[in-house]
Amino acid sequence: MWSFFEAHLGDLYLVYGLTLLVLGVLVAVLPRDVVALPFARDLWLIGAFGTLHGVFELVEMRAIQFPDAGALPPWLTATWLLLSFLPLFEFGRRLWQPAATAAHTPRPMARIWTPLAYGAIASAVLVLAVWSSNPAVALATGVRFFLGLPGALLTGTGLLSVLWRQPRRSHPGPLRRPLWIAALGFLAYCLLTPLQYDGSLHLPAWIPTERDFAAVFAVPVQAPRALAAVALTAGLATMIYGANAGVRKIKNQLRLSEKRLNEAQRIARVGSWELDLLHDVLTWSDEIFRIFEIDKTRFGATYGAFLAGVHPEDRETVNAAYTRSLATRKPYEIVHRLQMADGRIKYVIERSETDFDARGKPLRSVGTVQDVTERTRAE
Questions:
Q1: Looking at the DSSP assignment, which residues form a beta bridge with residue 355?
Q2: Is the CB of residue 162 less than 8 Å from the CB of residue 38?
Q3: Model confidence band, residue 300 (pLDDT cutoffs 50, 70, 90)
Q4: How far apart are CA 216 and CA 248, in angstroms?
Q5: How many C-beta neighbours within 10 Å does residue 361 have?
């Protein structure tokens, strides 16, 4: 078995590198606002890890397949590993940050522990590099030991903590199972990362090397590393696909609900509106545009633009009713006229109420406008 893997060692690096590159691409297509994935906004860090580390493994594969090309210089290897493992560690740290918040850890303490963690890692790597007679090789080994290993450990256990912290309904079966697979893949990767140490630094004998692993399992450590990469990528890829499918389903449901609401408003001749008082932005439903007979692409979308559509003789009354409702913090209802561009008159009933903050500052007004022209004329 050893001879088989030895003959296909370059292929293992190829599988490993391409798998991580695929992970980087898949993360790039995931929306950042997926509610089912509380860490969706931070997945770009996993994408960065997958892309950088995938390219690194492909370069390693090239050195094996074409020995004349030569391996990367040790300093470049150490720098590349540092750049690829940093986003992995940061992602794992952020996964655990909500847990610390939920446990009522003060935010100042969180700001202290983060630089302490990175400081401890940098110190351990530098001590190993200074102590060794081959600083560049020691630096690469230190990055694997003190950044890659804890980064994969934090990520794997962090994904498990997400499953434990969130209710089962927040992560349905199609998302829970891939999360489990990805978490176990990262934990396996954590255990295998330090085993790439070749024993050249004369570290304590109890620290296992890749030769020790091969002697026990009769396979190079690159084989299970490739399997771990496939597992964590498959888990995350399935999770991403399921999350995207869930987003598409929700968007389709929202579009259908909006369509039904517009149809109901059109039949009832009742439109709805919302006024953001902090930014003076007025939002109308389609039915209000039909009632006011205004092209929605040309509407100024402000309270002043709304008053311009009110009959000149009613503008002061309408504005006074709205202003009074803000002062008294009570809803209001008023019947007023609209004047169309061709001189026609419409009658509408407007109802509104306003939301206030704790200090009494108005934040948002919402209301409805109902066309009662036919009924008013009949009366």
A1: 364
A2: yes
A3: low
A4: 48
A5: 9
**What is the b/e burial string over 329-353, where b = at least 16 CB atoms within 10 angstroms of the residue's CB?**
eeebebebbbbeeeeeebbbbbebe
The sign of the CA dihedral 368, 371, 372, 373 is positive
- Predicted confidence (pLDDT) at residue 315 exceeds the cutoff of 80: yes
In this prediction, residue 316 carries a pLDDT of 92
Q: Are 197 and 142 in contact (CB under 8 A)?
A: no
Residues in the chain: 379
Residue 273, classed as helix, strand or coil, is strand
Q: In what order do the strands lie in the sheet with 332-339?
A: 281-284, 270-276, 362-371, 345-356, 332-339
Residue 138 near residue 128, CB atoms below 8 Å: yes
Q: How far apart are CA 369 and CA 251, in angstroms?
A: 27
pLDDT in tens, 320-337: 999 999 999 999 999 999
What would the DSSP string read from start to end of 209-261?
A: -HHHHHHHHSS-THHHHHHHHHHHHHHHHHHHHHHHHHHHHHHHHHHHHHHHH
* Average pLDDT value for residue range 30-40: 66
Question: What residues have CB less than 8 Å from 159, skipping those under 6 apart?
Answer: 95, 179, 182, 183, 186
Distance CA 319, CA 118 (A): 59
